Amino acid sequence: MLHDCIIIGGGIAGTQAAIQLGRYSAHKVLVIDSGYGRSSVCHTYHNIIGWPEGVTGEDLRQTGRKQAEALGIEFLEQTVTETARDGERFIVTTGDGQRFSAHTLLLATGMMDRYPDIPGLREALGYSVYICPDCDGYEIVDRKTVLIGSGEHGSGMAVLLAERTPHLTYVNHERAPIEKRLIDNLRKHGIEYEEQPVTEVRVDDDHDIRSVVLEDGRVLEADRGFIAFGGSHVRTELADQLGITLEGNRHIKTDPRTKMTDVEGVWAAGDIGLHSELSTIAMGEGTQAAIWIHKKLRKINKSR
Fold it and tell me: In the chain, N or C: fewer CB atoms in 10 Å?
């Protein structure tokens, strides 16, 4: 069956785009979503208008899906394994062998952060241990905070976070190389530095971090935590298959006005793009892309 648009990724950007396209009441749209993404990890978005007490990524995903479905948008929980162009159409293949075609595509596959399997870390991640300093730097103001990271990537994050709290320890969990001048800079900013693995993150029943245990047995008390390991997985493999130009960091540079990639008929929105990785930006980009997809589809319909 030929769709007007297939959206790959049902996170914040993809779902917001689906809602916007659904409100035109003119297009057959399919959202293919693996069911899990970066927004699934976040349990306390506090920077979104209307939710001062916070809202979870899963709440946004599920509420948004119901809103889009009420507008006639179809959702399929599958993983897309292949994308290709077939003349003026695009072919999308899922992991279970299904094939779908569409006039246009929106890639909203996002990214996933790299972090080690430390006991207790996953239980606190997205509650009291954070990833994004722009999203959640406010949450650590004047709080005793432990940053668990790797090498120079973590040291850069530590300097940013030191603007928020004077009670900061950076633990170079992977013992990755770090120049002496950077260590000196950490100390200049009042940041404690440890270079050894974390063996446990201790969390209470409310998912609040209480301490981290180091390999040598010492316990560092903490009210809040951050991670900064670098090497995050930007999910642009499908873009690569379509011949879309990727930047050196694997993100996609899109037209700032339309959010279309350099392949005609393919748009990108959310964390796979070149910008600050915030949920609020993903919402805006999803809407922006949908508006221009609608313009493209109107032209296609008029030419039939």
Answer: C
